[in-house]
Amino acid sequence: MAPMKKLLSVLLSAALIGGLCAGCSKAPKEEGGDSGIEVSGEESEKSKTTLTFVQHMSGVITDELQAVLDEFEAETGIAVEMSSPGSDIEEVMKTRMASNTLPDLWTTHGWSVARYGEYLRPMNDQDFVEHIVPSIKDLITGPDGNIYVLPIDADICGISYNAEVLEDADVEPESILTWEDFEAACDKIKAIGKTPLFFDGKDPLAFGQFFDFVAPTLYTNNDDINRREEFLDGSFDWKDWREVCEILERWTKKGYLNTDALTADYATACQALGKGDAAFMLRNANVIVEAWTTSPDARLGILPIPGKDSDNPRCIIGGERLAVGIWKDSPHQEEALQLIEYLAQPEVCARLATAAGMPAGLDNAESDTGKLAPYYERVMSDDILTIPYFDREYLPSGMWDDLCVTGANIVAGNSGAIDETIEQMRQSYETKKAQQ
Length: 436
Hints:
Elements: H1 2-26, H2 41-47, E1 50-54, H3 60-76, E2 79-83, H4 89-99, E3 105-107, H5 134-137, E4 150-151, E5 154-157, E6 159-162, H6 163-168, H7 179-191, E7 195-197, H8 205-219, H9 228-233, H10 242-253, H11 266-275, E8 278-281, H12 286-292, E9 300-303, E10 315-320, E11 323-326, H13 333-343, H14 346-356, H15 373-379, E12 385-387, H16 390-394, H17 400-411, H18 417-435
Parallel strand pairs: 1-2, 1-3, 7-8, 10-12
Antiparallel strand pairs: 3-11, 4-11, 5-10, 6-8, 6-9
């Protein structure tokens, strides 16, 4: 029996070898490969690179971005797993930075230099750098001269408004030069039964946006009288923060805000603006693009941010928004760069910027801002000051959360909210400044 078993073993081995050889003859050997064995679809899927990509936006632009990523995968075979934590992105990224387990790519939501610079791969060697528009280039360039992100659009942020509501209230948009003018307009709008100012407070960033809009007009916009150095060197007296807090408190008490300001979501806010239930939102034009998805015929526009008084200029806020960087320690550097190159193509960049309702961040891509084009031309004119986001320029990293929380506390009408805000801002500033 033993010789028979041995013979059977030899025959089986020969059959297996023959099968492998037959497999080799059916599929050409891959260049540089050493097996030549045809890989099954399941095994091929397992070996395919998948990039992780965290982004902070919501609405139409998120859908368009996903479509572009799907097309990138179809063209290159590189999958991209996109996650959208929304308002939780700050905490998500802080946790991942602390553990040094960052995604391959992420949108830097304004912090490519101050917060994320040490984690990002410099992009200076990429072709798109020479095409970055001047309005964004300085804001994404670090002190070392490094540029860390691809800016797909250029954030131009003013007050979004519904022109029909303003007409019905007999308010001329260009007459709103100061915050006093703005409040007079809100009184007229309220008198016709409309909501003057809509806050989507379910995501507290709406209240942080208030401070980003109003604080610079009080403290930093005037070249002759300003508090810039005090914010930067830590000498600002936080008791003076009361001035901006009292404006938010006054607007709340005068009934300018929607009654559900603390709970309304982003989609509801955009619909209210589009339908003409509300007149103003302190947000960039992305809310207008979103509003047009449900109210395509709405007449919507962008206003410059008013000055403190007639001695102060109106302004707009500029900064990075849809800006994508690569983790410097990503195990998929080559594939991540392929995605950056894909997104930087003029037609792709223009497509995404158009979906965002923003001018393109590269000068070789032309965003179709459509009905918003004349408004952009107006707010970007020489007589309108362009400023950075207040928290990014003058506050330590991490204080955005304080702006959001304290703003919500004031709108809630909690007793002593302004005093609590002043103390929280002071303590947070000192703690975070010491950690820098």
